[in-house]
Amino acid sequence: MELLFPLLILALLVPMFLGIRRQKKEMAKTTELQDSLNIGDRVMTTAGLHATVAALGDTTVDLEIAPGVVTTWARMVVRERVADDVADEGAVVDADGDESALIDETPEQTQHRLDKE
Questions:
Q1: Are residues 65 and 22 in the same domain?
Q2: Per the record, which residues fall in region Disordered (predicted)?
Q3: Residues in the chain with pLDDT < 70?
Q4: Are residues 26 and 71 in the same domain?
Q5: What pLDDT is stored for residue 39 in this prediction?
Q6: Residue 90 needs a FRET pair 20 to 30 A away by CA distance; which of 6, 15, 62, 101 works?
Q7: Of 81, 101, 99, the residue nearest 91 (C-alpha)
Q8: Cβ atoms within 10 A of the Cβ of 20, count?
């Protein structure tokens, strides 16, 4: 019974310590990302907005959310840098991963392909 109290305290403190450690690591990673931003980087904000970095200030970042539309945000809202997938957005890919197979497909061919599946 004498060991129960110290074990209970240990069981409560260890997860709390590990959680604080993980939170510090995530904060350091986010700070490093925000400090390494460059003009032209594609980023995602904490609100889920995808944009391109247009200008950088000490505590702010100007994000181009559409051609010619630039908004100013705090640097802290930048969550992550995203891959530049702008060139591949309109590509059509079939189930096998073949882009060219579906590009010249007629509506009848599409219906026939869907009926087979």
A1: yes
A2: 94-117
A3: 1, 84-103
A4: yes
A5: 94
A6: 62
A7: 99
A8: 10
Q: How many Å apart are CA 93 and CA 98, to the nearest integer? A: 6
Q: How many CA atoms lie within 13 A of 48 on its CB side?
A: 0
Range of the domain at 107: 86-117
> Are 43 and 63 a contacting pair, CB within 8 Å?
yes
pLDDT at 98: 54
pLDDT at residue number 94:
52
Amino acid occupying residue 63: L
Same domain for 46 and 60, yes or no, is yes
Q: What is the pLDDT of residue 61?
A: 95
3-class SS letters over 21-80: HHHHHHHHHHHHHHHCCCCCCEEEECCCCEEEEEEECCCEEEEEEECCEEEEEEHHHEEE
Q: In the chain, how long is the greatest CA-to-CA distance?
A: 79
Cβ neighbours, 10 Å, residue 51: 22
Q: How many domains does the chain have?
A: 2
* Residue whose tokens read 């889920």: 48
